[in-house]
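User: Sequence for Tetratricopeptide repeat protein below. Tokens please.
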Amino acid sequence: MTFASVIAILLLPITTNVAANSLPDAWRSILWISWPISLLLAVPVFALEMKARRRSSDSAVPYHAAPPKEIEKEIWNIPSPVRHFSNRKQDFERIGSLLMRGAGRTLLIHGMGGIGKTQMALEYARRQRPDATMGWFVPSRSRVAIMTALTDLGRRLGIDTSNQEATSMLVVEYLNEHTGWLLVFDDAHDVKDLSGLLPITEKGKVLITSRNPQFEQLAEALLLEPFPDEDAAKFLKGRSGDFSDLFARRLATNLAGLPLALEQAGAYCRDTGIGLDEYLHRFQVNKGKLLDRGTSGDRLGVEATFRLSFDRAAELNLAASQWLRLCSFMAPADIPRDLLAGSSDLLPRPLARAVLDDLAFDEVVSALRQTSLITSAAPSHLRIHQLVSDIMRDHVARRRDVWRRTTRLLLGVVRWPRADPAAHWSPGRWTKTGLAVLARNLPLEDPRDHESWTRASSLLPHLQALLEGLDELDAPLNAAEIRTFSGVEAEIGIRMFRRGDYLVGEHLCRHAFDMCRQKLAKDDAHTQLIMNYLAMTLHGLGRLEEARDLYDEIVPLRTAKLGPDHPDTLKAMNDLGGVMMDLEAGLGRAQELYEHVLAVYTRVLGERHISTIIATNNLGKVLRRRGDLEGALRLAEKSVRLGTAALGPDHPDVFVWTNNLGEVHRLLGDLATGRSIHEDNLERRTRVLGATHPATLISTNNLARILLQQGDVTEAERLYGLSLELSSRYVGSDSPTAKAARNGLLATATAREASEEGPAP
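Assistant: Structure tokens for Tetratricopeptide repeat protein:
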């Protein structure tokens, strides 16, 4: 309510009562004073009304009421694009189709910093200039900047008032009534800044460039992506003058297809006369300095461009800035959205609070999306561009150095409040925090559970990036950190092994074991667990002697420390039995080990426990190889029956037990039953595990062997050939499955020669 309204309300009853002669009798003696009071109250009402009318008159002057000015024939201030702008043909075609269908002919071009949003808009404007009556470039980082630009346009149109906002509104009205114009709102930050300043008719065209995808509510959206490697390499060759395809592709990969980075690299090569190979070497050594150089003219460099985004994200949400710093030390791959769940005690304060509240973490993601510092945001994952990570890591290192120098100067002189408790965190601390977060994030249930394999696979690239960073920093580790970091590496490694990535699993487990040996004793329970995992991977790769030597160390240590019936001791005995069985000469020792393990498991856990079923199947395999086929059949059937009831028919362990049952039937001469079992098992393994999993290749070899025995040489040869190709590519040419396939192909060749020679006369 205005002041004038309040006065009017006070005056109304007084004047009414005076006019109606209805004042109380007690007031009649002072009636004369009512008239001067009314006049006195009326004065400010009159003054306020006149002032409001003058303001309304100033702000409501229509554009045609301004002093007549001749409108310029060509009104155009949109700059030309850079000379070496890359021709994004497909994106220009999308612009045309989006503007044709878009309500109000407004288009949002959005994406990360340095992706080429402004240059795309300028190039589009250049192409539209022959058909446009007017074009205006509107810097849009703030509402004031927008109104300033529109006011400048208003002066060119003959529209001018003493009020910037009023002029801007009148310009918008003018555009709504005229055709053929083009506006480019560049680098818009906040949707609210454009409120009331955006033409809404279809008589012209509006382009908005922004890192903030929230402008989608105002316009049709075009997301600019980094160049594919092939297009990036082509751009580098053309811009640099060096047509080496090999180094162009390598450099394009290092720059992750970011157009501004590609432009900087090409211009640097052209200006300095070096080739792409030399730039690549300089980039790997002095990445930060090169990215901070900028390009010709007044365009910001990649690092400066991203630094603006970093600062903006910190202004919007400090926790978002901290999340970005943590994840920049990980890989430029999908990051699980729930990665930080359960890790709040490891994180700096604002981020720790955000991960405990879904809505607060949504605000973290929103701040990163508004600044385009994440290239993908989905319900299950987030992703950061490679160069964003590279520059942020360098930014953290530089900031740490500045913090140290400043602290030395100010220590003991002044105590500054610290808004960001992680401002002084070193790269080493961020890296260690990332590894600790991964350790908390990985489910630690039985690694045979194939549902945990997918999680381990999603964490693998981040584990590798963090471990590489740890090695580069050469940061000292204490015993607790070694347990945590080697533990998460080994747990991911054994799951990758179970998933079928034998070589990756062996590499991770060996690295974890080497880490343990730095400060942990060999009889330490943690060291022995990782030794056990490493031995399992070596067994899978067919390196039986190495696996046996490790188990021969583990079993006595666990027996002495834990006793012969401890679950960890029994696990090591069971695994050693598998190695001895495959060594053939160790079948007797394998049988002794399995009989002991099975007896203890049956007594302690019962015959239906998974560990007991595993031991039952393993003893049956030993009996099969030693020729006791009736005993082997009994144990194999029991394992499949109990295992299927406990885990279901599509569990990877059930596949193992079913495979053994099929082999027993084959050796008993029941080829039809054996073939049926192997065909069904191969189909299930292919569906659940994939065609390249080592277990699937084992089933392929076993089915081929039965087919060969049945005389189907052609199909057996095809399956052996497929197994050899996939085993060599995904498991290794010296792996057990590759060796079995190779031997199978020799057998099929022999069988084919025998069939071609015909029966002996």
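The chain has six domains: 3-59, 75-223, 229-297, 303-414, 562-653, 669-761.
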